[in-house]
Write a structure and sequence with these properties.
heterodimer, A: mainly alpha, B: mainly alpha, two-stranded antiparallel ribbon
Chain lengths: ~650, ~475
Amino acid sequence: MLYVACIFAPFLGASIAGLLGLFGKISDRGAQIVTCGLMVLSAILAIPIFIEVALNGHPRVIEFFTWFDAGTFEASWGLKFDTLSAVMVLTVTLVSSAIHIYSIGYMAHDPHKQRFMAYLSLFTFFMLTLVTAPNFMQLFFGWEGVGLVSYLLIGFWFDRESANAASIKAFLVNRVGDFGFALGIMGVFLLFGSVEFSTVFAAAPDKVGMGLEFLDVNFDALTIVCILLFVGAMGKSAQFLLHTWLPDAMEGPTPVSALIHAATMVTAGVFMVARLSPMFEYAPDALMVVAVVGGTTAIFAATIGIVQNDIKRVIAYSTCSQLGYMFFALGVSAYPAAVFHLMTHAWFKALLFLGAGSVIHAVSEQQDMRHMGGLYKKIPVTYAMIWIGSLALAGVGIPGLFGFAGFYSKDVMLEAAWGAHTGVGQYAFWMGIAAAALTAFYSWRLIFLTFHGKPRMDEETKAHIHESPKVMTVPLMFLAIGAIFAGVIGYAMFVGEDMHAFWGDSILILPANNSIEAAHHSPLWVVLLPLIMGILGIALAFYLYMTRPDLPARIAARFRPVYLFLLNKWYFDELYDFLFVRPANALGRGLWKSGDGAVIDGVGPDGIAAASVAIARRASKLQSGYVYHYAFAMLIGVVALITWYLYARAA
Amino acid sequence: MDSLTMMPALPEIFLAVAGMALLMFGVFQGDKSRHWMTWAVVACLVIAGAAVPQLADGRSLAFGGLFITDPFAVFMKELVLIGAVLALIMATGFNEREKIARFEFPILVLYATVGMLLMISANDLIALYVGIELQSLCLYVLAAFRRDTGRSSEAGLKYFVLGALSSGMLLYGASLIYGFAGTTRFDGLAEVLAGNDISLGLIVGIVFLIAGLAFKVSAVPFHMWTPDVYEGAPTPVTAFFASAPKMAAMALFIRVMIEPLGEAATDWRQIIVFISIASMLLGAFAAIWQTNIKRLLAYSSIGHMGYALIGLAAGTEEGVRGILVYLAIYLPMVIGTFACVMCMRRQGRMVEGIEDLAGIARTNPGMALALAIFMFSMAGIPPLAGFFGKLYIFLPAIESGLYTLAVIGVLSSVVGAFYYLRIVKLMYFDEASEAFDRPMGRELSLILVVTGVFTLFFFVSPEPLVGNAAAAAAALFGG
């Protein structure tokens, strides 16, 4: 009961706010109270679940009923709670609660509050069904649900053209990933004859080395399936090549950015790979792909982050980069480390996004950091929150004593990459080290540009600068607590000495791949290097943006091609526009003009369309309204049927 | 098994007796009684609905074998009763507003329902005829219930004349069958057909029988009455016509074709295929030009019956299961759609033009959403319920090798999608006209919500319905 209530409370909130809101039967305040109340309830229920399942080690599966039963293809609705799910449920509900409450303040001037709150709750519900799925079908259901609601949320301000474009882009890019994911699920069914996790995981070791014949080439079946599934994760988690939607998704309201890009949607890919560790462990080639893509994303997104001017875009690229970290950790079999970072990241990234939202709120919806500056005196609470978030993101801490959340999780991922002692591990490690310096650099660049230096906004905006209301700052402080302490509290459980007891059977790591164990025996310089790089990054940002504010522009001018390359995000949008969008447009236009116009409209006297209309007209003309016509038609019908029947018999 | 018992027919007997009692009350109390009459009849129908599965003990006979109950009958009876209850509830507010509320209305519905239950349980050609006539006589009166308008009277008269003609055909077919087979009992017929080569007279009889049944499900070419009657009859009556009688007629059709005539399946399959294709195509094409929403729904129901007949053409257990699932999904869908039609009133007057729906997404968002759900579902777009109905129909057809039928079915559903989606387009993208009157009435909103939620969320758990349908279909083939 507890378990069911925890998952379905947000759904109930979404239904009430959404349906009653549709009919105008609930006030704005009512919708906010209902959704926030049920969301907080869900978060409160998540705590005993976490204690029971993860800490006391009692995983359980609750089965509702069979969903599909078509021959051998069987799937059921249910909830699977093991440590992995419990961690995800706890993180998602806590962060989502903070975001729900924050939204009351942030969306105070929006006319569609009920709709917004309903979407937020619905989104959380889909994420919860995703993380508690006991089989691939329900995983896919949650996966698609999250995608759908994210589309609605990104395009929430549907009167903005850029928001519509961004939501469509997010939807389409995710579709590419989902196509791979769906193929992967079909592959799983083909290979294992089941889509239940328990059956599949138990059978995975036997399938090693099984081949899959395709176009006369023999592939390793398990590797192919895992890579296809990973393509789905790449789409949802905005990994290299499928990342283009994430920064544009900043068009949504800021709480949406925080929800989608911190705790929920983008982490679904990471969760999925961790959940499927019993499959990936037997497909080392697929793991290699995961690690390389992750390492590449980490450095690639960080380089773009250092030159962006939109405050939310900087954070968006930082998310992209951090997800890269998680994926390379997965790629070196350090699943617990990746989930650990997922958890800490959810706290500080939500904090940063909501903090950025608070800044935007303060300066009258301005998002360009070039038009900010000197804000720290005016909005001290937000300023402090951004500092905490950035310290956690950059992973600052004193080894052996205390550190912010990211300090523990990021370090253990990098050490695991080093400890894997493989080529890709080394690649991921050095990419991660470089990205760590860049991360620190762009985080403090953000702080200095936004809060320090001379104010660069116009007078009217300046007069309006105000700290955000309590309903916004209190959730920030709540998240800040997590950003400070999540790492130090979780370290021993997630990746430290209690690791095996904590995770139980929810994650499988083959003894040969135990990179986390190796991580604990890394040389001192490996342990210290990320921290040193982070401090160097901060120092560089200080030098460039505080002591010599004229330098960045000169550097940009000096290395103009590099600067433009980074500013335009490696020209990926242009590349995709050239490779896919324009050919698709041309193809569509061609089909419409030549195919539709010439073939379909051309066949027959006036084409098929006209023919349908003519048939329709004739059919309705038969309906004369006279009873004797109708009776006649019936008699003719009987005669015709008998005649035909007798003919058919004679023949 | 004592086949002289009356126990299996208890729900029908109860309803008939209750109907007479209520009629007496009504006569003595006058028109005042109309306020509670509907609810009394609804209560009777609900009691019958609860009793039907209780009294069914596998396969049992009554009245010396004229009457049969089995899981198939139980399944279909529940559908009929649900349809009748929903249609009655919908009618209350409407009849009051239109000033045609009479206490006879619910009682006529009650007796029509008794007729339908008898049809479903018929195990003999005579019982079949009695059931059909009881049902039809009530429906003729209901169609003409709004006596003071020409359209309603015309609808009733047309339905009566053509219905009489179809009854004549059916009786003629039944007498031919009796003449050549020597029995009217379904099980006896099955034995006769199993042994011998089928004689010519028997075949002519079967065709006439099929014609009579096809009239009741309004399949082409015996559909001509449908658009006129749908349009002319008062809307709640139309909603009733489109739901419960269709269930009963289709149930009878299935039983007759599978149980007594099952042995001759190879002979009649071609006819069913023809009727099915003609119905689907006509339903798809003729609806395109309609401007009246009730006429459009008439063609839509012709098309839907065409799809359902695909399952019968397959003639397999899976095919029958498909029909049952299809009908169970069709019922709430069509009731919900008619509930929307009944919301279409401006300044106290009903409007029925399709154009009147323009832009109501802004003025009546709730109703527009519900109607959009039903239209998408009828067009068969996943993941709505209508998609599953079509899925369970097309799969057995393909398994039985009826590829042409399946392909034509899919193509005509594409054409059909055109006019369903046109309604959605009208509602959501065209300029808003005047809003419909509010409030729409509590009973209508309730029905909209129930049917809408069923249609929208059916995919979450199709298993209970499909499982029951499978059991019902298995009963028909096991016996």
